[in-house]
Design a protein that fits this description.
heterodimer, A: about 300 residues, alpha/beta, Rossmann fold, 5-stranded parallel sheet, two-stranded antiparallel sheet, 9 helices, about 35% helix, about 10% strand, B: about 325 residues, 7-stranded mixed sheet, 5-stranded mixed sheet, 13 helices, globular
Chain lengths: ~300, ~325
């Protein structure tokens, strides 16, 4: 059922390294970026895109489109970023990405797997581009509006319910961040998915323990997260979010309940210099030329 | 003569209407029988989804269903569709312009449930949200015939719905028409524009006003957004002494505001009086009591007409009490306006 699950872990590792490298390069050239999210979620997103998701092919990498209007302009002008995931079909998986501020990381992943053209990041946060800083539903890899956090699990639940009514085989995946477990809607979505027995709904979470104001345990604790989610009627897998084999194994589980994979991650993995900024890791803007230069050295180490 | 009272007009009508529409789903928030869809649930159990008291999730899940080609009809009280889940409504549903139908019951002060249950600013909020279409039903005929009109709208729709014992004011062969006012009377002194249950209330006063020689153009509005029916501008321009709006809503942001915008944009300089809640919350009591307390009733309309004309019309409260109903002009007969 999972076409690529047996695919080489080497390829997923390559994609993960590429995500970190591209996001760091972009952060250096723009003097800012969502860097820790690349460090924590590189293996998670690489495993999804290069190993877990069954998506239809897109042929050549797609050029990032210009922004032509909001959805109400109609289908002639408007397209969601789901086109980077290929044609929809009953047997294909869907991916709804909830933390829209991971956009840079998702764009990097799409480049690494050959769905977004390599120059896609040149349009990042540029006026008139769809490669927006916070992913909109027209942005590559997105298809719903999720920047106001905790709505995607419900939206994905609705899509999964529709696909269940139509008896489709494809799964609906929702990629989430752990901060969203501070929002009440997340728990409404958990209880509804369990109540309506959406076994075709899969969530995968970057549990990096970090949010804008700092360490989550000091801002608003969400643990014990596995017990919470289980108590709401979900099947839960807890994995080291940098262990690709563990992520693949969890994803291969078939369950009768909705299933959530909690990927516990390190927000500075692969870039130890970032630890100097802890616990404020949400967005990196270099404070001095000297700091920029040290990250430049880290980048040179990374590409060696 | 009194109006026919229709009991639970939505209940069977919605079941019959949905029969050949497999894409129509019903989602509810623990108010299934209160919103007259208990029979619908029992008739189409595979298309009915209980979402419990969790409106934020209900709205966003409806968005997911609509993206997949289904047409979810959410049934709950008006207040619960936009106050708590306003962000979900805007980001999950309105921005992507999805075919989600928000069927809101007990609009305005029609519930003794007090401030928590009284949607007194819903029209104001929905009007400000791009892509929304807003309908308000004023009688049983509109409750029955609004369904086809909603079904034809490509984007999200909010409906102020009536339930329980509902008067039939408009003939069944004059159904709800998208963005078209019903012209209930024509005159030259006052232009009165009403919507929802305020129309029936106004109709108690109008014959008495006409008996005193007041010439009134009366429009019933059932499409609040868009608000572009040219009959409205024509009616506004015909008012010699003033324009009065009457609604079961705050005077801010609802019908009165929409009329003020049209008047300003069209250079209509008549004085405008808005009957509605005067920028206040209400409290729990009967509809009749609240309409009197907050000056939303037929008596309030008489006072506003007197103010516009600058003279007393000597209409006693007892006369209004007797005037529970009147015959209504057919809009079909006054197309010329």
């Amino acid at each position: 059922m999972i076409e690529n699950a047996s695919g080489p872990i080497d390829e997923i590792e390559r994609v993960a390294s590429g995500i970190r490298r591209r996001v760091l390069a972009h952060t250096l050239s723009n003097n800012g970026g969502y860097l820790s999210q690349a460090c924590s979620a590189a293996e998670l997103l690489a495993s999804l895109y290069a190993g877990i998701l069954k998506l239809s092919p897109v042929g050549q990498p797609i050029d990032a489109p210009l922004f032509l209007g909001v959805p109400s302009v109609g289908p002639d002008l408007y397209q969601t970023g789901a086109k980077f995931h290929g044609e929809k079909g009953p047997d294909y998986d869907r991916l709804i990405s909830s933390p829209a501020h991971y956009a840079l990381v998702i764009y990097a992943a799409l480049i690494e797997i050959g769905r977004l053209r390599e120059d896609g990041l040149d349009h990042f946060n540029k006026d008139g581009s769809t490669v927006e800083m916070i992913g909109g539903e027209h942005s590559p890899g997105f298809e719903t509006t999720t920047g106001s956090l905790a709505q995607a699990l419900s939206q994905g639940g609705g899509i999964a319910l529709a696909r269940k009514i139509r008896k489709e085989n494809g799964r609906t995946w929702v990629f989430m961040s752990d901060g969203e477990f501070q929002e009440g809607q997340t728990y409404e979505a958990l209880q509804a998915a369990a109540f309506h027995q959406l076994s075709n709904l899969k969530a995968i979470v970057d549990v990096n323990g970090s949010q804008s104001d700092g360490l989550m345990t000091s801002i608003m604790n969400i643990e014990p997260l596995p017990a919470r989610v289980e108590a709401f009627g979900w099947e839960v897998s807890v994995v080291d979010g940098h262990d690709i084999q563990a992520i693949l194994n969890a994803a291969a589980r078939t369950t009768t309940k909705p299933h959530m994979i909690l990927c516990y991650t390190d927000p500075v993995r692969g870039l130890p210099i970032l630890a100097e900024r802890a616990p404020l890791l949400h967005y990196v803007r270099f404070k001095s030329k000297e700091e920029h230069a040290r990250y430049e050295i880290a980048y040179q180490e990374m590409v060696k | 003569m009194s109006y026919e009272i229709v009991t639970r007009p939505h209940e069977q009508n919605f079941v019959d209407w949905s029969k050949d529409k497999p894409e129509v789903l019903v989602l509810t928030g623990d108010l299934t029988n209160s919103c007259e869809v208990g029979k619908w649930r029992d008739t189409y159990p595979d298309r009915y989804f209980s979402m419990g008291m969790a409106e934020q999730n209900m709205i966003s899940m409806a968005a997911g269903l609509a993206r997949e080609g289904f047409e979810p009809w959410l049934h709950t009280f008006s207040v619960f569709l936009y106050r708590r889940p306003l962000d979900q409504l805007q980001m999950s549903v309105a921005y992507p312009a999805l075919k989600v139908r928000l069927v809101g019951f007990l609009p305005g002060i029609m519930t003794p449930g007090g401030v928590t249950h009284q949607s007194i600013e819903d029209i104001a909020i929905f009007r400000a949200i791009p892509n929304m279409t807003i309908f308000e039903t004023g009688d049983a005929t509109e409750v029955e015939s609004v369904l086809d009109v909603v079904h034809a709208v490509e984007g999200p729709v909010y409906i102020r719905m009536l339930r329980g014992e509902v008067s039939r004011i408009f003939p069944t062969d004059e159904p709800f028409v998208f963005n078209q006012a019903r012209v209930l009377s024509l005159g030259s002194d006052i232009t009165l524009i009403t919507c929802g249950v305020s129309t029936e209330e106004a109709l108690r006063a109008i014959p008495l006003l006409q008996e005193r020689g007041v010439s009134i153009t009366h429009l019933h509005i059932s499409t609040l957004k868009p608000f572009t029916d040219p009959q409205v501008v024509t009616a506004l321009k015909s008012a010699k002494y003033g324009v009065i709006t009457m609604e079961n809503h705050s005077i801010i942001g609802g019908l009165g505001s929409a009329v003020a915008e049209v008047m300003a944009e069209n250079g209509v300089s008549a004085p405008l009086q808005r009957i509605g809640l005067k920028d206040t919350y209400a409290h729990g009591a009967s509809q009749k009591y609240l309409m009197a307390e907050y000056e939303l009733d037929a008596g309030a309309l008489v006072k506003r007409v007197e103010k516009a004309l600058g003279r007393s019309l000597n209409i006693a409260e007892s006369e209004l009490q007797e005037q529970r109903s009147v015959s209504v002009h057919s809009s079909a007969k006054v197309e010329g306006l």
